[in-house]
Amino acid sequence: MKAFVTGANGFTGSHLVKLLQQQGYSVKGLVRSSSNLSRLDKCNIELIQGDITDRAALRKGMEDVDRVFHTAAYVELGLVDEVQMERVNVEGTRAVLEVAKEMGVSKLVYCSTIGIFGDSQGEMIDETFQRRQKNFSSAYDRTKYQAQQLVDHLAAEGLPVVSVMPSGIFGVDDPHFAPVIELFLKGRLWFWIGGERLTGIVHVDDVAQAMILAAQKGGNGEYYILSAGELSTREMLKILATETGMAMPREVPEPLVRFLGNLLDPIGQLFSWNPPISRERVHYIYDRCVRVKADKAGQQLGWQPRSVKEVLLEFIEKLA
């Protein structure tokens, strides 16, 4: 079997490449000429250089392959380049879909996000949930929603495409959660915010496994939510503290965090800097709550993710 992976050098993409190879696939991967390829060290992969909107590169990648996995995305909150994010997330997805249709690809798996459902205000939802939020919480929220609309439209026209919707993707090399957990394990995380914030958790290797299962068993046009469960930030830190004997960091009061978000936003705009606390990040921490169930992936794909606690214990094993 042959597979083509967009965003092959990224966090999710690189783990997918390695798992595909373990399962006997021959893999091509789309990377930019400026990409850091360290995640692909020791991988036997044919690299296709090009931007995600480069249709010639996409055609080369999709030539003579059985499966296409679209993981490339611009993932960031706060003060971002919205034009660039739309180009990557929306126009890039449009290019992947249209070239896949042109090349007659037998199955395309799109890595979406639970964010496409919008703020469910704490309601536990599944794949049948209809988005109620009229506006968008971020440029990322908007562009991934727009990309999903393109996927759904092409699926309705007959393109064999399946969408997976991961919650928070964790792994010891992830760029978002891992640096914070590593600080904690080194005793250098003195303060934290948003202790009550709920985060859906899924291991990156389990996301990769679900994508392969979706390619094998997923129905065309179907959605599959991927989550092993959820924990509050406080609960996550308590597990890590209990297992390591580390002291819990102090929680910064919510009013102060909101004040800092309002203060740092204009400073960031003035100096073209994305601050660690901004109005958008504060909104995600305190106001927005998307809770999901992943029963369908288990029932239809046979997906069996590791537990939330196992995901967290891996950080202790490999980073402590």
Automatic annotation (TrEMBL):
A Pfam family matched in the record: Epimerase
Domain of life: Bacteria
SUPFAM superfamilies for the chain: NAD(P)-binding Rossmann-fold domains
GO cellular component, one term: cytoplasm
GO molecular function: aldehyde dehydrogenase (NAD+) activity
Domain NAD-dependent epimerase/dehydratase, chain residue ranges per copy: 4-224
Name by which UniProt lists this protein: NAD-dependent epimerase/dehydratase
Organism annotation: Gloeothece verrucosa (strain PCC 7822)
